[in-house]
Structure formats: C-alpha cells, structure tokens
Amino acid sequence: MDIDLYHSLIRRFWGLLIGIGLVATIGAAAFTLTRTSSYEGSVYFSVAQAPQAAGSKTDYYQFGDYYALQGSNYLADYFKGWLKDPATIEQILVKSGGGLPANKSLTSISRYFSVKPLGTVGLQVFHTTSNHDETNRVLTALQTVLTEKLSALQSQGLYPDFRVVPGSVLVHELKPDPLMAGAIGFGAGVVLAVLTLLILAATVPERR
Length: 208
Fold this sequence. Notes:
By secondary structure, the protein is of the alpha+beta class. About 55% of the residues lie in helices and about 15% in strands. It has 2 domains: about 60 residues; about 140 residues, 2-Layer Sandwich (Alpha-Beta Plaits). Helix 1 packs antiparallel against helix 6 and helix 3 packs across helix 5. It starts with a helix and ends in a 5-residue tail after the last helix.
C-alpha cells in the first residue's frame, strides 16, 4: 500500500471526500424530518389452566402441574400459528374495521404481527401502524378473535379447562430521530468516501 499516494489523493480531492460525507449525513437527517410518527402497540397473552380443573380425580390429570404446563405450551403454539395465518389475520383486520392490504402477498401478510414468546405459556404480540387509533383497534380485535378461536377449539372438546388471559393494549408513539439518522448517514458517508478514495487510487494518475 502506497501511503504517499493516498496522502496525495486526499490533498487533491479533500473537498469531494468531505462533500460525500456531508451529503450523506444531511440527506439522512433531512429524510427523517419528512417522516411522520409511527405507533407501535403490544399486548400480552398468557395461557393458563382454569382453577376448577385442578381438583379433578380423573386419570387425565394424574400428572398435575406437568399436564398444565404442557397443555398451556401446546395451546400457546396454536396462538402463534393463528397469528401467522392470513385467514385469521383477515378476521382480525375486518373486526377492527379494515381488511387485508390489497398490495401485499400472503407471505408478507403472514408477517403482519410480530410475536415474541415469553416463557412457555406467554406471548407478546407487537404491531405498528401510522395511526394510534388503528393500532389500538387492531390489537383489541386480535384479543377478541383469539378468544373466539379458543372457544371454537373448546366446543370440539379440546382444551376445555384452559383459558387465555389477555393483558392490556399499550400503544407507544415512535418519533423519527434525526440525530440517529444523521449518525447512520455519517457512517455511510465515511464508507462511501473510503470507497471513492480507493477508486481514485486505481484510476487517477499520480502527479509527479
């Protein structure tokens, strides 16, 4: 590596290199300022065995707490599957007053909600939109639809003594952060400036 060559190129093209960094930094920050806030909401679900089943003397409950834990775990898996099912997502959106996005594939719709397992019997569901009330309506409808689907399972004799315990819907405003965007833009500008320097080193003849 010829250090003198790079020193020479930096002296000759320092304005260009600094300009690249400034444009990337200012551009990223300015772009962020044009964006509006988004609203991220979350709701927690836990699956539990109903208290009235605890005293059963049948062989079905001979493993006691182990059965309760395993049953809750399996039912939580049902919930995770429903939240990836486009048909269930459509039910949720219709109940919230909307419908499926017309410009999205079923694969992308299956990722409409972000689901994070908490332990073996808990699920935290996240959803983000550009409107506070819409986020709240969607997550509230989600609570209703999952409860209805559990009732449908129980009507078929599955998990008759289990219940879902939904938490409260929380919606939080996410404001654009120009400083963070500017820092990311600055990092990108530095990378672009270095790449530009390497290209100049390979293409610009050295002054003598």
